[in-house]
Design brief:
This protein is α/β, with parallel strands linked by helices and about 350 residues long. The chain contains 11 helices and 12 strands. Helix 1 runs parallel beside helix 11, helix 7 packs parallel to helix 8 and helix 10 packs across helix 11. The structure holds adenosine-5'-triphosphate and magnesium ion. The site of magnesium ion (MG) has 3 residues, from loops.
């Protein structure tokens, strides 16, 4: 039987509540498809930072580089600045392991009410966000603190190799889906990096994929008004970050949204994590929605070479949402994380 070694990082708050839901579902999927998952768990978190002064140990990345994948719950906690959890854990993992694609599927699920008035039954899109360069750089600084001439400068870094590989990934994905790619730009205002991005998108275009570019402001509006018109959206780090949260909200909430940080070449492990944060307001009460984590685990199954198992997991939680009233309070129900998860697991177990 094939065994996949998975690094588990529950993190903070509800991260530790939704990951057991994901592993329970993975176990059931493995039994159906003849594979097992072996986990090593790491307590890297804001809690560890408060105790030991670092989110992870100095040799942390070395310890997980040979795992087949990383499953992460959520990191972040009140009193710990976001840049600590980001630059102390998430960004080093993404960059060192060359996880340059952040993949965020957005699908409206039956039984999950969204905020839109228009019918959105056909919303099924994927945001491909560049995940390791672009606007999120450490280059820049502040001058003249406290004086009237005070200023801040923040540089963006776009490399030909970095843009090309994520754009190619997005074109490939569009070719395997409905063949429509939209590129997010802002070349009318950002006059160096964005025209460079646009040029590379035009160069990498291929037969079989209809592509267009839209300015980020207009694209954001269209994503609210006509989400069903999109198939694959490719965007820089900042624009992709914003669009994927926007699109997740359109689809019915942050609790159900999944994400994958992919190293498509498989030189290093890829990382799978729900979009939501540690939700301190509900942490410890057992009612966190596990769908984002379960869906992220399904994406991990796709990546590990078990796409049929991934499809079954997605079908199972969709069936619970569409066919029963069992759901967590964020979706208007009264179920606990465990009760919802048991329903999903049951649908993956052999009848009898
Ligand atoms: P981050 O940690 O990324 O900064 P955040 O603090 O902006 O995230 P979250 O921690 O995701 O946001 O919480 C935002 C709101 O959504 C909170 O009210 C939280 O309770 C709710 N929420 C987030 N995830 C879930 C979930 N899985 N189930 C139920 N509610 C959730
Ligand atoms: Mg937070």
């Amino acid at each position: 039987m094939r065994t996949h070694r998975i690094a588990l990082i529950p993190g903070d708050g509800i991260g530790a509540e939704v990951l057991p839901a994901a592993t329970a579902v993975l176990h059931a999927a493995g039994r159906r498809h003849g594979f097992t998952l072996a986990y090593d768990s790491f307590d890297w978190s804001c809690e560890r930072y408060l105790r030991e002064g670092a989110m992870m140990p100095a040799d942390g990345l070395e310890r997980i580089r040979h795992h087949d994948a990383i499953l992460l719950g959520a990191v972040g906690w009140p009193g710990v600045p976001d840049h600590v959890s980001l630059w102390g854990l998430l960004i080093p993992i993404r960059r060192t392991f060359r996880q340059y694609v952040n993949l965020r599927p957005i699908t409206v699920l039956d039984g999950v009410p969204g905020p839109l008035r228009t019918a959105t039954a056909d919303v099924d899109l994927v945001v491909v966000r560049e995940n390791v360069e672009g606007e999120y750089s450490e280059i820049g600084g502040r001058l003249n603190r406290g004086f009237p001439e005070e200023m801040a400068v923040q540089e963006s870094v776009f490399t030909r190799a970095g843009v090309t590989r994520v754009v190619d990934y997005a074109f490939d994905l569009a070719a395997r889906r409905r063949g429509v790619l939209t590129s997010a730009t802002k070349s009318n205002g950002i006059i160096h990096t964005m025209p460079f991005w646009d040029e590379i998108v035009a160069e990498r275009a291929r037969l079989g994929v209809t592509w267009s570019q839209e300015h980020i402001d207009a694209l954001a509006a269209k994503l609210v008004l006509h989400p069903e018109r999109f198939d694959v959206i490719v965007a820089s780090n900042l624009f992709g970050d914003i669009l994927s949260d926007l699109a997740a909200a359109v689809a019915g909430g942050i609790g159900v949204a999944p994400a994958a940080n992919l190293n498509p070449e498989r030189e290093f492990p890829s990382m799978f994590e729900p979009v939501h944060g540690s939700a301190p307001d509900i942490a410890g009460t057992g009612v966190a929605n596990p769908v984002g984590a379960i869906w992220s685990a399904a994406m991990m199954l796709d990546h590990l070479g078990h796409p049929e198992a991934g499809d079954e997991v997605r079908a199972a939680f969709r069936a619970v949402l569409a066919g029963t009233a069992i759901r967590t309070p964020d979706l208007g129900g009264r179920a606990t994380t465990g009760e919802f998860t048991r329903e999903v697991v049951q649908r993956l177990e052999p009848a009898g």
